Amino acid sequence: MSTQGLPEAGTAGAGAPGRAGAKAFDVQRVRADFPALRQIVRGKPLIYLDSAATALKPQCVLDAVNQVYARDCGNIHRAVHLPSQRATQSFEAAREKLQAFLGAARPEEVIFTSGTTQSINMVAHCFGRARLKAGDKILVTGLEHHSNIVPWQMLCQAIGTELVVAEIDERGEVSLQDIEDKLKAGGIKLVAFAHVSNALGTILPAREICALAREYGAVSLADGAQAAPHLAVDVQALGCDFYALSAHKLYGPTGVGALYGRFELLDSLPPYQGGGDMIRSVSFAGTTYAALPNRLEAGTPNIAGVIGFGAALDYLASLDLDAARRHEQELFRYADEGLRAIDGVRRIGTADKACGALSFVMDAAHPHDIGTVVDMEGVALRTGHHCAQPVMTKFAIPATARASLGIYNNRADIDALLASVRVVKEMFS
Amino acid sequence: MSTQGLPEAGTAGAGAPGRAGAKAFDVQRVRADFPALRQIVRGKPLIYLDSAATALKPQCVLDAVNQVYARDCGNIHRAVHLPSQRATQSFEAAREKLQAFLGAARPEEVIFTSGTTQSINMVAHCFGRARLKAGDKILVTGLEHHSNIVPWQMLCQAIGTELVVAEIDERGEVSLQDIEDKLKAGGIKLVAFAHVSNALGTILPAREICALAREYGAVSLADGAQAAPHLAVDVQALGCDFYALSAHKLYGPTGVGALYGRFELLDSLPPYQGGGDMIRSVSFAGTTYAALPNRLEAGTPNIAGVIGFGAALDYLASLDLDAARRHEQELFRYADEGLRAIDGVRRIGTADKACGALSFVMDAAHPHDIGTVVDMEGVALRTGHHCAQPVMTKFAIPATARASLGIYNNRADIDALLASVRVVKEMFS
Amino acid sequence: MMSELRELYQEVILDHSKAPRNFKFPEGANRSAQGDNPLCGDNLTVKIVLDGARVVDIGFQGSGCAISQAAASTMTEMVKGKSTDEINAIFENYHDVVMGKAEINEELLGKLAVFAGVAEFPMRVKCATLAWHTMQQAIRGTDEVATTE
Amino acid sequence: MMSELRELYQEVILDHSKAPRNFKFPEGANRSAQGDNPLCGDNLTVKIVLDGARVVDIGFQGSGCAISQAAASTMTEMVKGKSTDEINAIFENYHDVVMGKAEINEELLGKLAVFAGVAEFPMRVKCATLAWHTMQQAIRGTDEVATTE
Ligand SMILES: Cc1ncc(COP(=O)(O)O)c(C=O)c1O
Ligand SMILES: Cc1ncc(COP(=O)(O)O)c(C=O)c1O
User: Fold this and answer.
1) Are strands A188-194 and A219-223 parallel, antiparallel or unpaired?
2) DSSP assignment, residue B94?
3) Can you tell me the distance from the alpha carbon of A208 to that of A195, in angstroms, rounded to the nearest whole number?
4) Residues 86..125 of D with a Cβ closer than 8 Å to A: which?
């Protein structure tokens, strides 16, 4: 048995499955909390294996969003009336919940954004343009999502910085030695990497990468879009300077995300967007900016979305997350073994430590055809390049089919996946 | 009687109230569609007069958002599975609804953003940095919201453009002659103005301003955050190059807005943020960008929010909007007269053509105290500078109290406002 | 449900996808275009020998799903020897059929009728039309990359 | 409901807001700070004659709502002549009371007890504390603008 799937020690908080004292995770109870699982698709109950794209939402998130629109429907921060007061309090409470979830030192270190993409663009813009100069280097890895590539390429084009890539090997792993060599070569001012790869499932050694970055005087940014749903994240233990994530992948609403930034660093950045709520005082003679977090949150935010995100975090806090993660890891292993056992299926991404996403290709069928056929079996997975084209190039494939897990998945889901993959095989060979 | 409150001919689509053939507007039926109005606040039914800050949402918007989360819970554009297909179709249908609402020529002219603030920042960044250079001038008016001031100030600081201000007069109006004189003086490459002022209610002569801008070779941007809820907007008739708006002020969800841009202009802009969905192909050797609208919509958008926005537009389309606007105008006049009739109340913003917002100050009480007292009477209005500090400076006041209207307000709401203002007066004098 | 799938992946389609016809560039090609579908990674290049307004020879290369390979393969068979006007008429009906907007004109489409099942799969329409868009781009002689967006 | 309002706008508060005490800058002021509440537009300047660790004289100017004016006015009366340690003790209790986090220490607060009603109005806490934050900034002698965020 491969050790693939074991979460990173220290950040993952999960032990070996089935160890003494470990509570069983009641996945049936969790499933009942997710209304989308109650639907019939193509005549069958939905098998949802696309959580890496967007996770399903528990009922309490729907209820929280609904309550904002049906009752606490006021803009925040500025009004004295009751709906606005209530919305403001719930909004700021969500910030504190996320602070706790990430282990941030202060609530002002949590900036709400529209998603991981905006969080990373904010750093590229605010930190990049203020602190970097032509010739400075930015290190990314070969497994990044486009959201952690294109903003840096745009920055490079604008100000003349250079992108350095730590390539992945054939298992989809990065080499710490390679990263250290590149840092040693000098000039790298920022290291931006995915904590977990969305295309391959690889868990990167985030703590070690951040330590190396610091050692060589570079700032670190971890793209946590895929890590936050599967690993226990503690930004202080990781030692990262920035951490980006999306609510919609963490069982929360769409259109919300966050950027964590170490206070001193974040506080030194110029604003990202200009507008309401981010100012101290505006005049045509000169404008001054508000303190954190407002300075980086211009305009009316996604109020209902942020409050719904808070509800998702409450939901996660109500679970035994260690047990949930063990459950996910077992399922990951089960799916991994099941896929490998089907002749003509090749798994893409076979890192020692992985979670969440399982990519594969088939001799018989193109990933797009896999997707359509399994969809007709009621199995929702994703096919394509997963916004990680350099990964596809590296593996010399046009695309993969990807099954990805959430806390509501069970063995029956994986069995359905495997059965539908066998249908594909039959159909095309 | 003042003619204040009459909508601008040509863009407003409303005639004189009570004219022959005009249908009556059934405000009671409309009220029943807004669940937030059913709540008791401070022991009384909520009187909501803060729609300029954020509008209440009809039930169908809640239902649409709910359906995304409870059923069509998939990411868009990339998956073949059914929840994703459904979400993608509803998302793109919302774009076409907004295209129709704005009278845009093509759906690709509609870019979804997180709100007006982001829409304007997008223009400042993409158009500003690509097309303007040091010494070029940007014209704004004296009544702008901070969202239409600060992005330009930030741009000026970054690239050395200069801000020119068309001041307002004591009624809160801009002078077309003044704007023309400033354009004539040369160097102005962009004219950015509020179609309707959020602090004063002034309706600006948008069509004339856009025509002047074009005549003198400047690009025009109308901030329609407050106009879209009250006036019939037709971007082609207005002749504007860009138009910005927020869903949450238009009875839709928070965290969504849009930027309209004339196709040729929009298509010539570089991307705003980098990430998923906005690329054609990514490699470390070089990345190419997707066509409109995707190029300007990086990352997972606010899927539920956009679809909810579509539902809000459907809702508006189901009403007799001409009648609704006449109703609002009558109410505006009724409130205006009622406020003026109270001794010690001074209306701020007395333009000939106005809609939506009624600002006032009182001899006896500071706006903040007005807000607290009327809130205890169950009346929700807004006090403060309304993110328009230059307007406060112009009128030499620290803040105003502002009542603002939505399609669900009725005479009883205004009567409650006037009664509560009288309570304030009594209390503080 | 499975019947819809059989309708989509008809024998003809599976056959063409496994053994695409004209999967090489014709000699003397004087027109060429590249097409890709950025969302799924499909890409292909179409080369044509155009004589006046007639497609004398045509071939393609590239990778993609069964639908897009079969669409490209059947397309090359279909358009070879035809005038651009004839080709336009065929594509118009083909396009509307896969979009679910029109009935099949059997006479015009011939073997292409097997693509009617695509109409039930809106996310796959692009796969069925990429080759056609690329071919038309080649005929127009523009240098742009064709996409299906 | 109206009783909460009476609780907030007590006679003492209305009186101080209409006729603020020490609404002028003291002669020989050697400390000064400016405070503003960016969200509502309140702003004030506090000037102090500080002798060692004792506030010998104090005055303020600025504009704001009844609560913020009365808070500034009563504050100046309260702190005049006191040591910074005494002032800190008073502010600590005052702050906790208006935040709804502590009971009133009548002995410490004296007349300031009228601000207890603010606890029912979370959006008004900033109005009741702006002057105090500004005063403390002045004593610390930092140049930053105090805000209540
Ligand atoms: C005229 C005007 N412009 C811009 C904005 C900013 O809108 P948002 O906060 O939704 O981005 C507002 C709303 O506050 C406004 O009234
Ligand atoms: C690793 C990773 N980074 C960034 C993103 C972008 O997230 P979003 O689209 O929510 O901005 C994603 C999700 O697609 C992801 O998986």
Assistant:
1) parallel
2) H
3) 11
4) 121-124
Q: Tokens 């796959």 — which residue?
A: C124
Query: ω into residue B293 within 30 of 0, thus cis?
Result: yes
Task: State the CB neighbour count (10 A cutoff) for residue A154.
Answer: 23
Topology classification of domain A62-317: Aspartate Aminotransferase; domain 2 (3.40.640)
Tens of pLDDT, residue by residue over B137-167, are: 999 999 999 999 999 999 999 999 999 999 9
The dihedral region occupied by A4, where left means phi > 0, alpha psi between -120 and 50, and beta the remainder, is beta
Tell me the pTM: 0.93
Q: Which amino acid makes up residue B172? A: G
* Distance between CA atoms of residues B348 and B351, nearest Å: 9
User: Under a CB-based contact definition with an 8 Å cutoff, are residues A394 and A169 in contact?
Assistant: no
Residues of A with catalytic roles = 387
Pairwise CA distance, residues B66 & B86, whole Å: 14
Question: What's the rounded Cα separation, in Å, for the pair A13 and B162?
Answer: 54
- Cα end-to-end span (Å), chain C: 28
Model pLDDT for residues A19-60, shown as the tens digit of each residue? 444 557 999 999 999 999 999 988 889 999 999 999 999 999
CB of residue A194 inside a 6 A radius of ligand 2: yes
Measured between alpha carbons, how far is C44 from C17 in angstroms, rounded to an integer?
14
Interface residue D3 vs chain B (CB under 8 A) = no
Tell me, rounded to whole angstroms, the distance of Cα B62 from its chain centroid: 21
CA C146 to chain centre: 13
Phi, psi angle pair for B304, to nearest 5°:
-65, -35
Whether residue A195 contacts residue A224, with contact meaning beta carbons closer than 8 Å, is answered with yes
Distance A147 CA to ligand 2 centre (A): 6
Residue of chain A with shortest Cα separation from C123: A372
C9 has a chain B CB within 8 A of its CB: no
Calpha distance A121→B298 (Å, rounded): 10
- For domain A27-32+320-428, say whether CATH 3.90.1150.10 is its number: yes
pLDDT of residue A20: 42
A358, A336 Cβ separation under 8 angstroms: yes
pLDDT < 70: residue spans in chain C: 1-2, 39, 142-149
Residue B270 exposure: Cα atoms within 13 Å on the Cβ side: 18
Helix axes A411-428, A321-340, angle to 10 degrees: 20
**Distance, CA of A290 to chain centre:** 29
- Domain ranges, ordered by start, for chain A: 27-32+320-428, 62-317
Ligand 2 atom 15: residue of nearest CA: A225
Which DSSP string do the residues of A309-366 spell out, in sequence order?
HHHHHHHHHHS-HHHHHHHHHHHHHHHHHHHHTSTTEEEE---SSB-SEEEEEESSS-
Using the CB atoms, write b or e for A304-325: b if 16+ within 10 Å: bbbbbbbbbbbbbeebeebbbb
Name the CATH architecture for the domain at D2-141. Answer: Alpha-Beta Complex (3.90)
